[in-house]
Amino acid sequence: MTYTSPVPVADGHFYEGSSLELQGLSMAYGDIEVLKDVSISVPPGTTTCIIGPSGSGKSTLLRGVNRLHEPKSGEVLLAGESVLTQKPDSVRRRIGLVFQHFNLFPDHTALENVALALRNVKGFSKAESRRVARERLTEVGLAERADHRPRDLSGGQQQRVAIARALAMEPEVMLFDEATSALDPELVKGVLNLMASLAQRGMTMLVVTHEMGFARKVADQVVFMDEGRVVESGKPADLFDRPQSARLQRFLSEVL
Amino acid sequence: MDWLDNLIKTFLDFDAMWQVMPQLLGIGLVNTLVISIWATVIGVVLGMVIAIMGISPSRWLRVPARIYTDIFRGLPAILTILLIGQGFARFSQQVFGPSPYPLGILALSLIASAYIGEIFRAGIQSVDRGQLEACRALGMSYGKAMRLVVVPQGVRRVLPALVNQFIAIVKDSSLVYFLGLLVSERELFRVGQDAAVLTGNLSPLVMAGLFYLIITVPLTHLVNYFDNRFRTGRRKAAPPKSGLDEVEEQNPTPTLTYGENS
Question: Contact at 8 Å (CB) between A38 and A96?
Answer without folding.
Answer: no
